[in-house]
C-alpha cells in the first residue's frame, strides 16, 4: 500500500498556524529519515484538539494528545520504532484477536473457551459525530489544569485515527505485540463498529473515545473478550479481574476506553 506524502518536513511552508512545537524523528535505531510527528511545547488547552483537526486534516495530519505521564516522558523518549511497522490494512482484525485470545486466555483467564468471535455493531447507535465526541473528551482532559494535565496536542501523518500508533512507530504494547500495525487493524475495526477515535497516547497508554458504545450487557460481555485479546493487562492487572466485571464497569455505555500495557 502506497503511503501518503508526509507534510511534516515542509511544515514551515505549509501555511498551518501552529503554536511553538517540536518535530520528532528520534527512534530506537537513531534519527528517522523524516519527522514522525509534531507536538506543541505547551500543555493542551480546551479546543486544541478540534483546532488541530480542522487545520491538519486537509493536508493529511490528524490530531492526538500525547501524554508525558508522571515522568515527563515525551515522544522523543518513547523508543519509537517505525522500521518494525507493517501496514494496518494488511491485517485482519479477527485473525489478530483470535490469535491473542488463543495464546493468552487459557492461562490468564483460566478458561478453555474458544475465541467467541467479533462483536456486532451495537444495536442502538450513538450520535453520528465521533470526531465531535473525541474533541469534547479531549477538552475534558485538557481542562484538568496543572499538574493533572500532562497532555500536549500533536499532529501525525495518518490516513485515519486508528493508524496513528503505527504511523509514528509506537511501541507501547511491546511486551504484547512488536508490530503495532496489527493492533491498529483492530482499532480500525472498532472505528467502523463503535466510532472510536484515538484521543490520547502515552509511552504505554492509549485512550479512545467511543461514539457507539455497547448499550446492553450482552453486547458488553462480547466486547470484553476483544478487549482482553487486545490488551490482557486491562484485566490481569486491574481490579476488574473477570470479563463480566470488566464488561459491566468498563464497557457498558462508556464513551471512553483506556488501555495500558505493562
Summary tags:
262 residues; alpha+beta; seven-stranded mixed β-sheet; 17% strand; globular
Strand-residue proportion: 15-25%
- Helix count, DSSP H or I runs of 4 or more residues: 8
Mean pLDDT score: 93
Proportion in helices: 25-40%
Low-confidence stretches: none
Task: Output the structural class.
Answer: alpha+beta
Walk me through what this model shows:
- By secondary structure, the chain is α+β, with helices and mostly antiparallel strands.
- The protein is 32% helix and 17% strand.
- The chain is built from eight helices and nine strands.
- It has helices at 48-56, 93-108, 130-142, 164-168, 180-194, 217-230, 233-236, 243-251; strands spanning 21-24, 26-27, 30-31, 37-40, 61-67, 151-157, 196-202, 205-210, 256-260.
- The chain has a seven-stranded mixed β-sheet with strand order 1-4-6-5-7-8-9, with helices on both faces. A two-stranded antiparallel ribbon has the order 2-3.
- Strand 2 (26-27) and strand 3 (30-31) form a beta hairpin.
- The chain is globular, with a radius of gyration of 18 Å.
Would you summarize the structure shown here?
This protein has 262 residues and is of the alpha+beta class. It contains 8 helices and 9 strands.
Strand and helix layout:
Blueprint: E1 21-24, E2 26-27, E3 30-31, E4 37-40, H1 48-56, E5 61-67, H2 93-108, H3 130-142, E6 151-157, H4 164-168, H5 180-194, E7 196-202, E8 205-210, H6 217-230, H7 233-236, H8 243-251, E9 256-260
Parallel strand pairs: 5-7
Antiparallel strand pairs: 1-4, 2-3, 4-6, 5-6, 7-8, 8-9
Helix pairs in contact: 2-5, 2-6, 6-8
Amino acid at each position: 500500500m502506497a503511503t501518503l506524502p508526509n507534510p511534516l518536513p515542509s511544515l514551515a511552508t505549509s501555511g498551518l498556524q501552529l503554536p511553538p512545537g517540536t518535530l520528532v524523528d528520534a527512534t530506537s535505531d537513531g534519527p528517522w529519515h523524516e519527522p514522525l510527528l509534531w507536538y506543541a511545547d505547551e500543555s493542551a488547552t480546551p479546543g486544541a484538539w478540534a483546532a488541530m483537526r480542522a487545520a491538519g486534516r486537509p493536508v493529511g495530519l490528524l490530531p492526538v494528545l500525547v501524554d508525558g505521564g508522571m515522568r515527563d516522558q515525551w515522544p522523543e523518549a518513547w523508543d519509537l520504532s517505525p522500521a518494525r511497522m507493517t501496514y494496518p490494512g494488511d491485517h485482519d482484525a479477527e485473525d489478530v484477536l483470535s490469535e491473542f485470545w488463543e495464546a493468552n486466555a487459557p492461562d490468564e483467564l483460566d478458561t478453555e473457551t474458544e475465541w467467541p468471535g467479533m462483536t456486532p455493531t451495537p444495536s442502538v447507535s450513538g450520535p453520528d459525530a465521533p470526531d465531535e465526541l473525541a474533541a469534547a473528551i479531549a477538552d475534558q482532559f485538557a481542562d484538568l489544569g496543572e499538574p493533572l494535565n500532562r497532555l500536549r496536542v500533536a499532529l501525525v501523518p495518518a490516513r485515519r485515527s486508528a493508524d496513528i500508533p503505527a504511523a509514528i512507530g509506537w511501541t507501547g504494547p511491546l511486551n504484547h505485540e512488536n508490530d503495532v500495525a496489527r493492533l491498529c487493524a483492530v482499532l480500525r475495526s472498532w472505528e467502523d463498529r463503535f466510532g472510536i477515535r484515538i484521543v490520547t497516547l502515552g509511552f504505554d497508554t492509549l485512550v479512545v473515545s467511543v461514539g457507539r458504545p455497547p448499550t446492553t450487557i450482552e453486547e458488553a460481555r462480547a466486547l470484553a473478550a476483544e478487549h482482553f485479546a487486545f490488551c490482557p493487562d486491562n484485566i490481569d492487572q486491574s481490579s476488574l479481574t473477570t470479563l463480566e466485571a470488566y464488561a459491566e464497569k468498563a464497557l457498558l455505555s462508556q464513551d471512553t476506553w483506556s488501555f495500558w500495557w505493562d
